[in-house]
Write a structure and sequence with these properties.
The chain is α+β, with helices and mostly antiparallel strands. The chain has seven helices and twelve strands. About 7% of the residues have low confidence.
Length: 282
C-alpha cells in the first residue's frame, strides 16, 4: 500500500513538473521558420591588393543622410526589436561590448581611442524637472536634475571615408570604405537644431563582423535577409561627396557654395566613374 501511494505521489509530482518545465523551454516561434542564417553570417573577404598593382587611387569623403528614402533602413526601427535594430543602436552596443573601437572625432586617422563611457558622458544631456503644486501651478515644490541618455534618433547622418583605386592585376576599379563617423544634431534650450557635431570615428574593417550579423529591413522581400555589411558592400545607399583629397585639405564647402557646390560634387563623382572607361580602347 505504501509503495502504491508512493507511485501515485511521484506520478502526481511529475505530472505537474513536466508541463511547467516544458513551458519554460518551448517559446512560440515568431514566424514561419527559424531564422538561423543571419547569426552565422561572416563578412565577404576582400580581394588581396598589392601596392604594386594599384595604378591610381583617390580618397573621397561622403555623407549618407538617413532622411533620404533609400537610407531610411539605417534610421529605423526607432525602438529596437529582437533581430532588428537601427544603425546607431548597433554601433553603440558594439562599442559598449568592446567589439568595435571608437576614435577621436577630431582626427579620422584612428589614433586616439574613445571609450564608451566617454562617449556616453559627452552626449548625454541634463534636464531640470520642476515639480509644481497641483492645486496652485505657480508654486514650485521642488526641482531635480535628471540625466537624459544619448538618443540614436539624434543621428541623422554619417560620414564615410573611402579609397577608390584601380587594380591593374584584376583590371577593375574598386572601392574600400576606411572609416565611418556619425553626426549628431545639437539643440538649444528651446529645442531648435543649431549645429551638427562629429561623434567619433570607427574603423570599418573592424566593424564588418558586427555588421555582417546585423539585419537591415528589405523593402522588396522579407525572406531575403540583408545585413549592414551587405548594404555597404553592394553600395545600396544614397550619398553625396563633400570632400576629395587635395593639396589644401579643404572641403567643397570651403571654395564653393549653393549650386556650385552641388556641381563640384557631381564632377568628382563622374570623374570616378569615367576614369576606368578612359583606360580602355574599343
Amino acid at each position: 500500500m505504501k509503495s502504491l501511494l508512493s507511485l501515485v505521489f511521484i506520478g502526481f509530482f511529475l505530472g505537474i513538473g513536466i508541463p511547467s518545465f516544458g513551458q519554460i523551454l518551448d517559446s512560440p516561434r515568431d514566424g514561419v521558420y527559424d531564422e538561423i542564417s543571419t547569426p552565422e553570417k561572416k563578412p565577404i573577404p576582400y580581394a588581396s591588393v598589392r601596392e604594386a598593382d594599384v595604378a591610381w587611387k583617390k580618397r573621397i569623403w561622403r555623407i549618407i543622410d538617413f532622411r533620404q528614402k533609400m537610407n531610411q533602413p539605417f534610421y529605423y526601427p526607432a525602438t529596437p526589436q529582437k533581430n532588428w535594430k537601427n544603425f546607431m543602436t548597433i554601433v553603440m552596443d558594439a562599442i559598449r561590448e568592446g567589439s568595435i573601437t571608437a576614435y577621436d572625432p577630431g582626427d579620422d586617422q584612428f589614433l586616439v581611442p574613445y571609450t564608451y563611457s566617454e562617449i556616453d558622458k559627452k552626449f548625454s544631456k541634463e534636464e531640470e524637472i520642476i515639480h509644481r503644486d497641483p492645486e496652485d501651478p505657480e508654486v514650485i515644490l521642488s526641482t531635480e536634475t535628471v540625466v537624459v541618455p544619448f538618443d540614436p534618433a539624434d543621428v541623422e547622418k554619417i560620414q564615410i571615408k573611402e579609397d577608390w583605386f584601380f587594380d591593374k592585376n584584376r583590371s577593375i576599379m574598386d572601392v574600400r570604405i576606411i572609416g565611418i563617423c556619425p553626426l549628431i544634431n545639437q539643440y538649444d534650450d528651446d529645442g531648435n537644431k543649431y549645429a551638427v557635431e562629429e561623434m567619433f570615428w570607427i574603423y570599418f574593417p573592424e566593424t564588418r563582423p558586427v555588421f555582417a550579423q546585423a539585419e537591415v529591413f528589405n523593402r522588396k522581400n522579407g525572406a531575403e535577409r540583408r545585413t549592414y555589411d551587405e548594404i555597404f558592400w553592394k553600395r545600396m545607399f544614397a550619398s553625396y561627396i563633400y570632400k576629395e583629397e587635395n593639396v589644401y585639405d579643404r572641403e567643397i564647402s570651403k571654395y564653393a557654395v549653393g549650386m556650385d557646390a552641388l556641381l563640384e560634387a557631381e564632377r568628382i563623382k563622374n570623374e570616378l566613374f569615367t576614369f576606368e572607361q578612359e583606360l580602355w580602347e574599343f
